[in-house]
């Protein structure tokens, strides 16, 4: 089993990845600031940021500081989820063995997927920290710290990158999770057909893709605990996220399937309370 502890990426992968990781993270951070990045993918990031800022948004969102910031944050998150959901599913579809052997060496495509998502989580964490709502968003920050610990370990050691692809199955659910919150920010009627459709898909994909991915990863670590590198640290991080996922599931069910007050009726509440409400609606 000792040979399994020191996997190296396939030939050509290491150089490709190291040359692209920093630009990818730099580009994603630029999404929030709007800076023009010269060199790798700079024009594309500038164009995406410009499009996101100029897209029309509901009047109630545009005139409300917290909602306006949240809308911008969710717009970037939705772009990330849409890209990585397809990317992760494609990677695993091409190599289904990754579902069972998450320690396997990575291909350049799966490694870049890990780098891309790590850049996003760094961006999102910095966006929260630099906003005036960081204190009320501590759950997001804790979640991001746990994710970044696992993803950065995979990137720096070239181990468990296949597991990162499986973990990113959660982004299928995140598409509906972010869409749902944006609909709530826009005060879409919760009894309307579009909202009902999104909330049902959100619940279904939450169980199938978010909890399903967590189950596969947890099972892999437990079944192979005896020989996996840093298995204890990984199991603690995954275990903490499992607890958070169950709490978030209860909050989602309570918010969408049990009576409660509408978000748009609470405009006079504090900024912190707004973010606490949204903590049940968004995580990556």
TrEMBL record:
Cellular compartments annotated: Membrane
Pfam families xref list: TRAM_LAG1_CLN8
TLC domain segment(s): 66-261
Keyword set includes Membrane: yes
Cellular component annotations (GO), alphabetically ordered: membrane
Membrane topology designation: Multi-pass membrane protein
Keywords: Membrane, Transmembrane, Transmembrane helix
Transmembrane segments: 162-179, 200-222, 234-253
Name used for this protein in its record: TLC domain-containing protein
Species of the source: Umbra pygmaea (Eastern mudminnow)
